[in-house]
Protein: Sterol desaturase family protein
Amino acid sequence: MRFDAELLLLAMAPVFVGCIGWEAWHLSRTRPGSGIYSWRDTLCNAALALMHQAADKVAWLFVIPVYAFFYAHVRLFTLEAGWASFVLLFVAQDLLYYVFHRASHRVRWLWAAHVVHHSSERLNLSTAFRQSLMYPVAGMWAFWIPLAVLGFPPSQIVAIVLVNLAFQFFVHTQAVGKLGWLEYVFNTPSIHRVHHARNDRYIDRNYAGVLVIWDRLFGSYVAEDPAEPPVYGIVEPLHTYNPLKATFHEWASMFADAARMKGWRNRLKALFAPPAWAAQWHAARDVAQEQANAATGISSGAAGSGTKAGTVRNA
Ligand SMILES: [Zn+2]
Ligand SMILES: [Zn+2]
Structure:
């Protein structure tokens, strides 16, 4: 089954590229000058996709034996292959994806990897390729261990993770409006546009992979409001098309914060608290610095970073 899924994704590659080409052409005719596509942004996304794929290939070599261990020694059920077990696998993995994705926005260690997907200020089908090679280091793979415990063999786990990811390609577009009743069941372009937005009312909402029922059940659903178009990107913009900077900037910032904070509690919070905690710490530090400068009559050199005060990082 693993082989089939990888083959399916390989077969889908021309479909993905064709859809990107169609979307760019379509938007150039229907919304000329909108700037939804830019060559530099799309090339950066493509580079990030290749880096992510390479890292994933290596990571599976290490991770599949971990799943195999849990499957062999800890599994609760022995499931017979068939439609019922496939549906269970699909639904369970999609729920775990929701948990992973929500945690990726609430735990800075995971956000350090996931921020890559959000750091472009454009949203189009090529944004789906914008992924981090650091996901295996962050520990994304650990979220699928419960599937092995439930009784799914490693090859099926890998396959369903890839299928879920492939589906999500299609929700990264501004060329499709709301989709009627599908909005109640599935993650759709409208629902995922909200997820990529940094507007106050949209931030930290709509974590769905394939099914949006989890957002509706657990209170994280917000509908796209035509009166408030999404503003894409993160609260502290990255301003680079360099895929290496996009990949490592938050890791560097996180470890720098942990190194300069006093006390283990604060250091652990720098790594594992919500990203907004560090943003508030930065803001408080900048205010203290400005006050110290004012007291000594030095003109503020922290004015640039002081603009962070009062903002909350895309958490
Ligand atoms: Zn996200
Ligand atoms: Zn996305």
Residues 236 and 313 are 6 Å apart (CA to CA).
